[in-house]
Amino acid sequence: MSTLLSILFFPKKGRSTPDDQAVLYTRITYRGKRAEFSTSRRIKVQLWNTKSGKAKGTSEEARTVNRFLDHTRSSLYEIHDRLLRENRRISATTIKEIYLGKEEKQYMLQEIFQDHNDDMEKLIGKGFTKGTLQRYNACKKHIEDYLEFRGKAKDIPVEDVDHKFITGFDHFLKSEKDCAHNTAQKYIVNFKKIIRIAYANQRIDKDPFFHWKGNWKSSEREYLTDSELKVMAEQKFDIPRLDMVRDTFVFCCYTGLAFADVKKLVADDIIEQNGKRWIKTKRQKTKSLSSIPILEIPGKILDKYADHPYVKAGKGVLPVLTNQKSNSYLKEIADVCGIKKNLTTHLARHTFATTVTLSKGVPIESVGKMLGHRSLKTTQIYAKVLDEKVERDMEMLEQKMKNKQ
């Protein structure tokens, strides 16, 4: 019998019991936590031995009560041993519920995770994107790999997730999956949502993330400088696919559109306003409105592809390839242009925020509106103050100071 488990019986007076009688209760203690229940068996108060925890004497009533208590104790220990053999979570409450025939369904972590992902898949395009679903599917697979790494089964009861499990998963992502710090944090946040759903639905008694706090490391966001952007925009390509991907990238550099937004951009999203063309579109990620005046360079790119079969068919204003292919071809384009940076489709959005707008003195509020940000804090992530702008600002200050002398 485990020393972690103790069974105690005690009498308790009830409102409906006679003065000389009490109802016997069972107290289960496991790892310092208790659970109690009534045996519905009455006993005369004078028959109870508090020190031994059983009825005293050799009367028929005393022997009957003690046999009942021995059987109850034996049954509770058998339940404990069965839980051990089945490698299931043990608690005083679990033992009590099984004894009383109220054993509830054991909710498994991966089952809950899969249910969440199945529900999310049904809502693709109605509040969720395929990219979001892919991240949750990847997180679920990482959890499965982590369980296997720990030498456990492919699934565990969700109530077995504790702070140690969370920190262990974090370490696993970084050491075994080679995830960067912020990438690991994103997976932990995805996992946290699943656990919070389980907690909200009363699948678990406490939130294991209560004492967990994520921390993000600030990272330098790359962008193209004016000279690099000029080289790329003017580079001649004989290969149509490279020319097309370059044009889409440059278009995003001058409009700030994310890849998903330029891919879904259609003719109805471009309007005439005060004699100038504007892009008016809702961001796929946040559904917030982006209002962007079309500058000369992106305007020429739109005109260049106006007669392209893809555009003529009404599929979009530019023939945009997949994100994966675009990123792959951008590597080739970078080599041809002599650009040493890791070009990705999203780097164009950084370039718009930093090189094209903020460094030219465009107010951050206007940049945020064009980027479709709901909060100025989000725009500040992109805000880069270039050395050359600082130098120009200080030269202007120096000139003003000289003029006053």
Automatic annotation (TrEMBL):
Keyword presence, DNA-binding: yes
Domain of life: Bacteria
Database matches in InterPro entries: Arm-DNA-bind_5, DNA_brk_join_enz, Integrase-like_cat_sf, Integrase_catalytic, Integrase_recombinase_N, SAM-like_dom, Tyrosine_recombinase_XerCD
Span of domain Tyr recombinase: 219-396
Keywords in alphabetical order: DNA recombination, DNA-binding
Keyword flag DNA-binding: yes
UniProt-listed PANTHER family: PHAGE INTEGRASE-RELATED, PROPHAGE INTEGRASE INTD-RELATED
Family: Belongs to the 'phage' integrase family.
Name used for this protein in its record: Site-specific integrase
Protein source organism: Autumnicola patrickiae
